[in-house]
Amino acid sequence: MFTDFIDGPFWTFSVSVFAIGVIWRLISIIRLGVPGDLAVPREDGGAGGMRTILSRFMARPAVRKRALLIVVAGYMFHVGLFALLFFAQPHIDFYVDRFGVPAWAGMPRWLFILTAEIAFAGLIMAWLYRVMHPVTRMLSGIGEHTASWLVFFVMLTGCLALLEQYDSLRVLHFFLAELLLIYFPFSSLMHTFTFAFSRNYTGATMGRRGVDA
Amino acid sequence: MNVAVRHGLIQILVVIACLLLFAGSPVHAQSSQDDKAPVSPIDVPNPGAELWNAVRERGGAEPTQQHPLTAIWEDVLQQQDTAAKSQARSADATSMINASGDQWRQLRREQLIPYGGALLLLSLAIVIGLSFVKRTAHYSESDMIIRRFKVPSLVGHWLMAGSMLFLAFTGLVLLFGRFTLLPLTGSDFFSAFASASKEGHDLFGPIFTFALIIFFFQFVSKNMLHYRDFVWMARLGGLFEKKPLKAGFFNFGEKTLFWLVIFFGIALSVSGFAILFQNLLPGRDLMLLATLVHAVSAILLICLVIGHIFMALSTKGTMDAITTGDVDANWAKADHSVWYEQMKEAGHIRKRIAHASDDAGKEIPVAEVSAEQTGAS
């Protein structure tokens, strides 16, 4: 019964909350608009925005020097999680089954395991940095910690179910993933989508003023 | 802060334990009951199964009642050293049967598990017993602090500690679970629980190795032996003396722990990778040896870590060093006097305030540590 609930109504509910919540928040941001700029632009704002979206993927030299650990850990986690979400064969099979999308090539199993380990090490180091560094510790609230631990437990339970022979382990992973979907739109995890908006805003504003941001 | 961090870590461990416990939840029991719908068994002759059943019974059967297949087993055992031929070129391809596997199984069941379990319980009993001994603070708090560990060192320590605790928990389930948990929980629960533990153990093993390498390079320079360490060792760390012994950044006890952790960590990592990639090993015996080395190293390391955790939690001021990175100046003066003097000369003693950068480097008197206070430790 619990399995049926997690696989059926709760899945529908969590995906609905995720989709509606994310769209609602993005539309809210877009509707805020930008203040009018009456000055003659020195450069195209769109180009500046795109340049900043891409250039901010590289940490600035000062940040690399002073906080190399968090830069490396951040990349390990984010790239690893992206690869796991979209190129782990069990996930591809799931998307094909649930959404009816055509299948695509997944990672070989050894790479899947290696990616999971890199993502885990990155997530743990990033969280430890968050609680150990006096500044990030003060900046972090319950929301950041909840997001970190929810993602960690989703990843952990997914790896515990790697043998794919126990339905209880799959259901546990699925249940936590659904909780994450519900929590996502109301949390700082929204940076998955909003990072592009904020970078574009900064880049476009600075671009129009002729500043390389 | 310390209490909050400690409580937080305990809560996280409890959540992990609950998640693993959920692995054998009624969900699986329900599904397995559904799977148990009456299905007529198909009688498939399996000579291999008969042989193994006979092998299992060979110890208890009377010679007159001995299963005829047992004789085959005995013959094979006697001829195992006889050179055989095979088209296959894989490891042990010409070995008819590997008797060392049976010896390994007996060693594991009759020596490793009971003695290993006893050693772990003894360590816990010692720590619990010591926790009842009243310990007074060995220094008085001042308003001055010294930076002992930078953030990367804290992260390196906790990455290794966290992965090690997870591996210890899942490893103990795999080693002792069959004899301790299975009778309590039943096979439905335990099979899922053990499977989750095994997958988690395999996954976090390489993370532990990664953390061990980082940890080694972060701390090795501070753990090289010094002549004062031999004095510290000869005088048993000042255990029976009122005045604390001179020590640098780490004392001899801490350095010993570091090198033992590195030694057992390497043994665990090498044997762990050998088990993970056992098909690449040149022979089966090496894999059996790797599992024994892995289990023995793990048990000894867990015993060490139990003592380490007890010392960290029971010695006032020690947890501050590894949670905030800062220690009280008087703590440093009492336990690591040589390092304290170095910090004092370098002007690295600062006030205990949130943003003390303006005061960094200013020399402010630190309270003297009394002989009574230091002798109490």
In the CATH classification, which architecture of chain A applies?
Up-down Bundle
How would a textbook summarize the main sheet of chain B?
A: 3 strands, antiparallel
Please state the overall shape of chain A, judged from the principal axes of the Cα atoms: globular
Low-confidence parts of chain B lasting 5 or more residues at pLDDT below 50?
23-36, 355-365, 368-377
Task: Write out the strand line-up for the largest beta sheet of chain B, numbering strands in chain order.
Answer: 2-1-3
How many domains in all of chain A? Answer: 1
Instruction: Average the pLDDT over all residues of chain A and give the rounded result.
Output: 92
The total beta strand count of chain A reads 0
| Rounded Rg of chain B | 27 Å
**What's the CATH class label of the domain at 151-315 in chain B?**
Mainly Alpha
Beta content of chain A comes to under 5%
Superfamily (CATH H level) name of chain A: Transmembrane di-heme cytochromes, Chain C
Instruction: Give the N-terminus to C-terminus distance of chain A in angstroms.
Output: 55 Å
Give me the CATH architecture of the domain at 151-315 in chain B, please: Up-down Bundle
N to C succession of SSEs of chain B: HHHHHEHHHHHHHEHHEH
Strand element count of chain B: 3
